[in-house]
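Section handout, structural biology tutorial.
Before the tutorial, make sure you can parse a SMILES string by hand: atoms, branches in parentheses, ring closures as digits. In the record below the ligand is nicotinamide-adenine-dinucleotide, and the chain has 381 residues. In the tutorial you will relate the predicted structure tokens back to the input. Do not try to memorize them.
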Amino acid sequence: MTAKQIRYGMVGGSLNAFIGEVHRKAIAFDPRAELTAGSFSTMEATNKETAEAYGLDPARVYKDYKDMAKAESAREDGIDFVSICTPNYLHYDIAKAFLQNGIHVVCEKPLCFEVEEALELEQLAAANNLLFGVTYTYTGYTMSKVMKDMIAGGKIGNIVAVNAEYVQDWLIDDLMPGAAADQNLSVWRKDPKYSGIANSVGDIGTHIENYVHYVTGLKIKRLLATTNTYGHALDLNANMIVEYDNGITGAYWTSQIASGHLNGLVVRVFGDKGSLEWQQEQPDYLRFTPKGGATQIISRGTGYIEEAAGAVSRLPAGHPEGLYVAFANIYQNFISALIDVKHGSYGGKADFPTVSDGVSGVRFVHAVVKSAQNNSGWVEL
Ligand SMILES: NC(=O)c1ccc[n+]([C@@H]2O[C@H](COP(=O)([O-])OP(=O)(O)OC[C@H]3O[C@@H](n4cnc5c(N)ncnc54)[C@H](O)[C@@H]3O)[C@@H](O)[C@H]2O)c1
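Predicted structure of the complex:
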């Protein structure tokens, strides 16, 4: 069997974790890449068990990500990129270790805790000519790309307002005083030590911030916010008004206590010639309402959607694609760019979220928290 073109390693994402397994499955959609190294957990048995499940060479299973970065960089057949799927507090240190060893990076969001750290990672990647992807998953869906192309193509005219929410209810029991300790593996999100200065705003608010920027091109100039902690250390609910660089405003809402809502990312963009709405729980469809006309439901996999965006569609219309494919589309574009880098033919145009998007996310989180702590005053980004 010939070796694959791209070898990758993973930090975090042991078998019992959430998102690392999604990353591995998404990368496996691409026949050009294979998992060859990892440091999946600090628990030795869990690390070993995950590596064995993927048939890794035991010599390439590391107790510590720092050893992994050094050893992989020294090997002739070392990994081309690392995928970082740990809780937030480790992203900066891990990304830095791999960049310093000349290894390309894909990292989960939010990128890191501090704006200075984010800028340092951006600078390190640029200085070392390394690709750095950040997995803002929802931009990977076909209909997100169709939405972007339709807005750029003038289908809704000039943007006049944005309204977006990302609401869940998995922490609703936190509203009960003295609720029993949560056994859910994801509870680190509520702890500032692991999560950073925000919970819902960092975990799901950053997706809104990135998604709106992706589909509209708008950049936030300033924002004001309120956050609700309900007696906990970090926010479980937040409301934000953002003003973009063209003076238009948008309203964002994040929540983890919105009863009945599971993973409700909804983005509505209004223009002077119509509007577009995308809901991540029905990701293959887009609602388009031309001004004064009937609402149309645009479907993925059809002949009438924009050709370029439609190119990432993998299944015929009516067969739901879903989250794995959204991740796979991001990785497919990252892997294509990486192959171009290896062949010296990379033009620098990345159709995947980059470290610069990660920097914007960290700025956004800090601005929201600062505004909420300052009587909801405007904070410049
Ligand atoms: N893009 C998305 O849509 C999306 C979705 C879910 C989670 N995330 C992000 O992914 C990251 C992980 O979230 P999760 O829900 O998978 O968390 P999780 O708690 O389920 O998994 C964390 C993993 O990191 C491992 N780990 C912790 N410390 C480690 C270390 N020092 N070395 C090696 N491995 C270590 C754990 O063993 C575990 O396997 C977070 O930053 C989160 O914000 C993103």
